[in-house]
Each structure stands twice: as structure tokens, then as C-alpha cells.
Amino acid sequence: LPYVPHVSPTALLGKVTATTFALERPRCVFDGHADASDAVWLAVAFANATATFRNPLSRADVPPYKQLPTARSYMTLETAAAAYSCSAPSLPVLRVGGDTACRDQARQDPCNGPLPSPGPYRVKFLLMGCGGPKAETRWSEPILLRRAVSPSTIDPARTRRGGDVVVIASILASLGAVLATAVLGALGAKVWGCLRHQDLGTDSFIRRSYRTHHIPPVLPQPPPPGCGCSPPGLCRSA
After folding, report:
1. Membrane-spanning regions, if any (predicted)?
2. Do the bridges between strand 73-80 and strand 121-129 make them parallel or antiparallel, or are there none, so unpaired?
3. Model pTM?
4. What contacts 2, CB < 8 A, 6 or more positions away?
């Protein structure tokens, strides 16, 4: 079949991890080739082992997950062919390597266990009936998983430098806060002093005005009529 499997183009968290990848689920690919009793398998192989992969003749010959390190390939995700039809409602992706219980040695295959290394890997879908393989897709392009960083490869000097930067930044931030508080305190004291001085000046002005503004100036008063005339003749002529 002309279909080529590929990693899902949908934006997903963890689309490709160190042990798994999200594969687009094919639809309408096997219509016209599958019967109700047929199953679709996913073959997973290291990219350099696809040339030596041979389709199993029956379900009993399916290469198991636990032999991947030596056989370089395995088959998993056995699903009824009807689940891949055009009319079947289904999830848009298949998570390859998502079953951590496969690490249990007593677990029976087929198993969809975590992939043991970054690969790269290639995959294809295989339609199998009671009489063996009936149709298959093409192999995918190589799929490379993410590499986990070993703790021994982390540079401790870089970590210490990063910690020193955090400490220095914290100290500078604290000093900045103290300086800002001091400046604001000084400005507040200065403003308060100015306002206090203005209040004192107003009180003084009010007190000075209180002593003087309601007291009229003392003017010379004329003597009573007929009193204090000298010489007496001047008073009579007046």
C-alpha cells in the first residue's frame, strides 16, 4: 500500500520522548483489503534492520517485544482492522512505547513497551488474516527519539556559577529595596519639615496680628470746654 506512516503533525505534549513517540493513526488505508476477522499490526524495527525484517506467516510467528535488543525488531498494537476504517471513530494518534508494564518479564507479548534507545526506528502497518499477511504499508522515515541527559555529564562549575548569579542578584535586589526605602524616608522627612515650618510661621503671624489689629491708635484728645485756658483773657475772647 502507498501509505507511509509518520509522527503525528498535531501539536502534542511529549510527541517524541526518550522512550516513546506519537504516530498518526491511519484511516481508510485498509478498506477494500480487510475482512471482519483480520487484524492490523505495527512492526517496529531499528532503521538499519528493515532490510532483514520478514513478515510473520501467522500470529504465532510474530516477533515479541522482549527480543528487540537481539532481533532488532518486534510487532505490537494488534488491533481489529475495522478500527482503521473510514467510518470508525478513533483517537488520532497511536503512542508507540507507552506500556511501562512490559518491563515485567512475566508479561505476555504482544507488548507495546518503552523503546530502549534513541534509535532511530522505522515502522510499518501490516494487515494479517487467518492465512497470514494480506497487505502492508511502506516503512516510515527514520524516527529519532530524544536523548536523556546523564547526571554525570552536567558541569558542576556551571551549576555553581548559576547559583552564584542567583545569590548576587538576590543581594542586589535587597540593597536596592533598602536604598529605595531610605530615599523615600528622607524625602518624607524633608516634606514633613517644610509643612511643619509653614504651620509655625502661620501661628506666629496669627499671634502677632492678635496683639495689634484690634487696638486703635492713641490720638491726642482736646481738653473739655472752659478748662485749662491760660491766660484767662484768651479764654474769654474765645
Report:
1. 165-187
2. unpaired
3. 0.62
4. 137, 138
